[in-house]
């Protein structure tokens, strides 16, 4: 199923919750990292059939698994993944999610195991209590708003509303940020905060689409409707069955009922009408809700502070461990699990109460396709008995749906999506039709951006179908140390770098701001964690102790069969700018014939004298004992200069000027006629100029005129070689002897001339 990914591809696969609600499980892949989001079961199926399509993906490649919240459609197959597959990644969830998960899944194991009216074979159980215990210990917990880094995958949990402990995850890999909403709610309710918008933007948004384009009625209206319909049912002696998921929204409904019962005690005939919650699990988890009151909204925290009592301990609501303790005499309100009416207490009560017209089934949660909760809303004539599908039970009871499912409606979702501002939106957790409608609505909402860089793409992938997005990855380098001071006045922390490759690369970084600041330093790329740091050379050790700066030095030694003064003379003729660092024989001071003659008298064939020269700033030549050593720091310019010097050193004893210079010393033997000593001393310089002039002729053609008047008149003080370029009104006078522009009235032309001169110098430097 998985295709080979290029380095710039981001891949998304829904192993579950693609065009459906249930068995949430998504895979993200980018830059060789694999993240799994949620591991749920499908409430409409049982056993292996309820699992996400785990066979379609190699779970052993998953680095981390993030669980958004404790609902079974997001978390119930986690022990299976951890204990029964080749998965070996790390698992994270928030503290409250883990606390509730423990109780919830134990209950899930019990409910789905044989003995609980189940038609399942024992082998069909997804996992055992032991699996649950073992996996539980391996689950790591995270706090909201703190960022965890696992080998370059950074993720941060944000409040998602929905249920206690529910988290959104913003995941960052190599600068690409993906936000996964999980199930989320933007409505402030009685106990939870609404979902947050993460402060950093996201490139990809994976968002739930449960309600598609539907609009929720205002919260107050729904509360009013709920209490009214319950009140009127019990007033007529009827029973109200509210199928709820054990934890989460049930607590919210209970807070509403508790408040209403307190305020309307008299209308309800004192405390004559009991409210029950048939969930031992919910009772056990009350301490979890108490523990995490600090993670709920201000309202509930204030209630807790003021009364010093747990707001989840209710006066008007009693817990039932099971139906054996329930005496079904008159009107009552019953909250019962499971929420989908598939089996268990809620189903038992449904079958018992649905034949009576005065009773009411009140659905407050989201009903998954294919479940009894969904079916009953069609108000069928009969329903099948859970234990025996051949038996049908007449349905005459009332059926109402008032949703308190904490999922966003279209308007809330759209507002949130606009705030996230991602250009790629992947829809999950929605039945095909609402999801499709949401996709169309989003596309039309963002249609004005079509064809612009901000164009919004919306995907509604089916299970196991890849969505591949290309991210070329604008890389952000973090500036550290000295370099920050360099650029601080422009207050730039993040620099955009076009392309970065290996472990270390010296780079010139261009900032994308209007005021461009160019800084240079060493770009250190941590391939594992995708961190890019820009540091100055001197800071490298401090920030990256594992790295050391190596400056590549080159050295070349050449035998020179001549005196050091000859070497000095040739090099200074060629480069002019020669700094003498050491000169024990003072050859650089008087490189004249007197000196040479004097040296001749001393007759030191192999002298210990040392001459050290620095040429063009960075190339060093050491002449000692007839050996010349050239040393330089690698670099384009230095390499070129060094090449020229080596060329000079290799030809120094055969050059005509050398012959002249050394004619009296005669310290070496070669076949040159001494008469050649008459040659112009400037021959190398002159030939260099000629080459450059040639280049100018080629470049400027007829626009270039050379003036060489009186050139040969006096060889000892040669006339400067000059040239003139005339292009329309633009005129430039060039002195080639001094290699400078005497005057030029056009900056572009001047720049062009300068670059030709510089190219020319490089080109001809080795020719002499
Ligand atoms: Zn949920
Ligand atoms: Zn869900």
From TrEMBL:
Entry keyword Hydrolase: yes
GO CC, one annotated term: mRNA cleavage and polyadenylation specificity factor complex
Record-annotated Metallo-beta-lactamase domain positions: 22-238
InterPro entries: Beta_Casp (IPR022712), CPSF73-100_C (IPR021718), MBL (IPR050698), Metallo-B-lactamas (IPR001279), RibonucZ/Hydroxyglut_hydro (IPR036866), RMMBL (IPR011108)
Residues annotated as domain Beta-Casp: 250-376
Highest taxon above the source species: Eukaryota
Gene Ontology molecular-function annotations: 5'-3' RNA exonuclease activity; RNA binding; RNA endonuclease activity
GO annotation (BP), single: mRNA processing
Entry annotated with the keyword Nuclease: yes
Record keywords, A-Z: Endonuclease, Hydrolase, mRNA processing, Nuclease, Nucleus
Subcellular location: Nucleus
Span of domain Pre-mRNA 3'-end-processing endonuclease polyadenylation factor C-term: 513-767
PANTHER family found in the cross-reference section: CLEAVAGE AND POLYADENYLATION SPECIFICITY FACTOR FAMILY MEMBER (PTHR11203), CLEAVAGE AND POLYADENYLATION SPECIFICITY FACTOR SUBUNIT 3 (PTHR11203:SF11)
Stated family: Belongs to the metallo-beta-lactamase superfamily. RNA-metabolizing metallo-beta-lactamase-like family. CPSF2/YSH1 subfamily.
Name of the protein: Endoribonuclease YSH1
């Amino acid at each position: 199923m998985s295709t080979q990914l290029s380095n710039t591809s981001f891949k998304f696969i829904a192993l579950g919750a693609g065009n459906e609600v249930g068995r949430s499980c998504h895979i993200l892949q980018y830059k060789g990292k694999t993240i799994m989001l949620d591991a749920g079961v499908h409430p409409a199926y049982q056993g292996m059939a309820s699992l996400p399509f785990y066979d379609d993906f190699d779970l052993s490649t998953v680095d981390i698994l993030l669980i958004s919240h404790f609902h079974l459609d997001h978390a119930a197959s986690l022990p299976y993944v951890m204990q029964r597959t080749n998965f070996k990644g790390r698992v994270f969830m928030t503290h409250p999610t883990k606390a509730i998960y423990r109780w919830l899944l134990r209950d899930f194991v019990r409910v789905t195991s044989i003995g609980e009216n189940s038609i399942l074979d024992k082998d069909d159980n997804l996992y055992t209590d032991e699996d649950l215990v073992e996996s539980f210990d391996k689950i790591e917990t995270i706090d909201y708003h703190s960022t965890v880094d696992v080998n370059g995958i950074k993720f941060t949990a944000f409040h998602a509303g929905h249920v206690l402990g529910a988290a959104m995850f913003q995941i960052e890999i190599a600068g690409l940020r993906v936000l996964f909403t999980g199930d989320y709610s933007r409505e402030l309710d009685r106990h939870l905060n609404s979902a947050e918008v993460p402060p950093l933007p996201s490139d990809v948004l994976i968002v739930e689409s449960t309600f598609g384009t539907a609009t929720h009625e205002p919260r107050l209206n729904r509360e009013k409707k709920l209490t009214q319909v319950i009140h009127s049912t019990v007033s007529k002696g009827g029973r109200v069955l509210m199928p709820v998921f054990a934890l989460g929204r049930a607590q919210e409904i209970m807070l509403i009922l508790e408040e209403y019962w307190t305020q309307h005690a008299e209308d309800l005939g004192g405390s004559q009408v009991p409210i029950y919650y048939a969930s031992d699990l919910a009772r056990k988890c009350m301490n979890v809700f108490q523990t995490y009151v600090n993670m709920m909204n201000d309202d509930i925290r204030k209630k807790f502070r003021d009364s010093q009592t747990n707001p989840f301990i209710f006066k008007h609501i009693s817990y039932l461990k099971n139906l054996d303790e329930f005496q079904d005499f008159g009107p009552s309100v019953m909250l019962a699990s499971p929420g989908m009416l598939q089996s268990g207490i809620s189903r038992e009560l449904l079958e018992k109460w649905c034949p009576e017209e005065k009773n009411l089934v009140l659905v407050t949660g989201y009903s998954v396709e294919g479940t009894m909760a969904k079916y009953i809303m069609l108000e069928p004539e009969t329903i099948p008995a859970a234990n025996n599908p051949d038996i049908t039970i007449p349905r005459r009871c009332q059926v109402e749906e008032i949703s308190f499912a904490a999922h966003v409606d279209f308007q809330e979702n759209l507002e949130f999506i606009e705030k996230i501002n991602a250009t790629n939106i992947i829809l999950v957790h929605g039945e095909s039709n609402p999801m499709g409608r949401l996709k169309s609505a989003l596309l039309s909402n963002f249609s004005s951006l079509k064809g612009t860089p901000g164009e919004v793409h919306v995907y509604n992938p089916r299970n196991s179908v890849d969505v591949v997005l290309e991210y070329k990855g604008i890389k952000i380098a973090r500036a550290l140390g000295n370099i920050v001071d360099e650029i601080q006045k422009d207050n730039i922390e993040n620099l955009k770098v076009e392309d970065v490759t290996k472990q270390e690369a010296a780079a010139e970084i261009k900032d994308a701001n209007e005021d461009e600041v160019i800084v240079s330093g060493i770009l250190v790329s941590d391939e594992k964690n995708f961190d890019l740091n820009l540091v100055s050379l001197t800071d490298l050790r401090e920030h990256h102790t594992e790295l050391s700066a190596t400056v590549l030095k080159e050295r070349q030694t050449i035998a020179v069969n001549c005196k050091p003064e000859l070497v000095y003379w040739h090099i200074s003729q060629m480069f002019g700018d020669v700094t003498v660092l050491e000169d024990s024989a003072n050859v650089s001071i008087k490189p004249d014939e007197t000196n040479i003659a004097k040296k001749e008298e001393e007759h030191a064939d192999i002298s210990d004298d040392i001459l050290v020269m620095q040429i063009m700033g960075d190339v060093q030549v050491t002449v000692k004992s007839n050996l010349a050593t050239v040393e330089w720091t690698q670099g384009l310019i230095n390499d070129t200069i060094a090449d020229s010097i080596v060329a000079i050193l290799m030809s120094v004893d055969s050059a005509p000027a050398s012959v002249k210079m050394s004619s009296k010393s005669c310290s070496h033997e070669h076949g040159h006629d001494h008469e050649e000593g008459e040659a112009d001393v400037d021959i190398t310089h002159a030939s260099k100029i000629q080459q450059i002039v040639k280049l100018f002729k080629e470049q400027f053609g007829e626009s270039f005129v050379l003036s060489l008047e009186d050139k040969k008149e006096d060889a000892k003080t040669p006339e400067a070689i000059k040239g003139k370029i005339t292009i329309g009104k633009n005129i430039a006078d060039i002195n080639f002897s001094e290699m400078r522009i005497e005057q030029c009235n056009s900056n572009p032309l001047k720049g062009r001339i300068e670059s030709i001169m510089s190219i020319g110098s490089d080109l001809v430097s080795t020719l002499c």
